[in-house]
Amino acid sequence: MHLVIGFRTKTQVFYALRVCLALMSALCEAVFVRSVAQHVDRRMANYVWLGVFGMAGMFHAAHAVLPTSFAMCLCMLGSAAAMAPPVSDVKRHMRNRAVPAIGAFALAVCAGWPYAGLVAVPFVLEEMLVKGSGASTRNWRAQRLAMLVVVGVGATVIALGAMAVVDSWYYGRPVVAAWNQVAYNVLGQHNGSSTLYGTEPWYFYLKNGLLNANLVMILALCALPMWILYYVALKQTSRTTASVAGERAMRQLLDGHFLLLFRLLPFYLVLVVFSLQAHKEERFLSIVYPHLSFCASAALSMASPLRAWVCAQLGRRSRGGQSRTGFLVLAGAACVGMLRMTALVKYYGAPVRAFMELPTSNITGLLPLGPSIKGLRTEQPLHNDLDRVVCMGGAWYWFPSSYWLPRGYHLQFVRELGGVDGHLPGDFVPAKASGSVQKSTSVERPDFNARNEWEPSHAIELSQCDYAVDIEYPMREEPGLARSSEWQQVGMCHSVLDPVNTSVLARMVYVPHMLAWMAGQRQEWGQMCVYERRNPIA
Question: What global pTM score does this model have?
Answer without folding.
Answer: 0.91
